[in-house]
Amino acid sequence: MQIQTMETGAIYEGDNLEIMSKFPDKSVDLIYADPPFYSGKPYEVIWEDAPEKRAFEDRWSGGIQHYVSWMEPRLTECRRILKDTGSMFLHCDTHANAYLRILMNKIFGGSRMINEIIWCYETGGRATKFYPSKHDTIFWYSKTKDYNFYYDQVAIPRDTSTMHEGIYTDENGKKYQRNIKNGKEYRYYLDKGTLPNDWWTDIQALNPSAKERLGYPTQKPVALLERIIKTASKKEDIILDPFCGCGTTLVASQKLHRKWIGIDISATACKLMQKRLKKDFSITAQLVRGEVDMKYIKKLAPFEFQNWVVVDKFSGTVSRTKSGDMGIDGTTAQVNGGYPIQVKQSEDIGRNVIDNFETAIRRMRKSKGYIVAYSFGKGAVEEVARVKNQEGLEIILRTAQELLDGKVE
Ligand SMILES: C[S@@+](CC[C@H](N)C(=O)[O-])C[C@H]1O[C@@H](n2cnc3c(N)ncnc32)[C@H](O)[C@@H]1O
Question: What distance in angstroms lies between residue 136's CA and the mean position of ligand 1's atoms?
Answer without folding.
Answer: 16
